[in-house]
Specification:
The protein contains two helices and four strands; from the N terminus they run H-E-E-E-H-E. By secondary structure, the chain is α+β, with helices and mostly antiparallel strands. Strand 2 and strand 3 form a beta hairpin.
Length: 71
């Protein structure tokens, strides 16, 4: 469950399969297309943040199974 701090900013996540997520939207395997889409969504979230204190911030989460270099 998300904390209040997480809810105030965009969340980027990597699951155990190596898929990239933005908030609750699965962007797919990490490749040029998903990274470009992630960048677009981060910029959009900074321009119109859910909460003012979330402007310019992202929260990054990754599955514990992923090696550090993958994250």
């Amino acid at each position: 469950q998300a904390t209040a701090d997480e809810v105030s900013r965009a969340i980027i996540a990597l699951d155990a399969n190596g898929d990239l997520w933005f908030d609750k939207d699965k962007l797919g395997p990490i490749d040029d297309n998903s990274l470009k889409e992630m960048g677009r969504r981060v910029e959009q979230s900074w321009k119109a943040p859910k909460h003012p204190e979330g402007a310019g911030k992202v929260y990054i989460k990754a599955a514990a199974e992923l090696p550090y270099g993958k994250v």
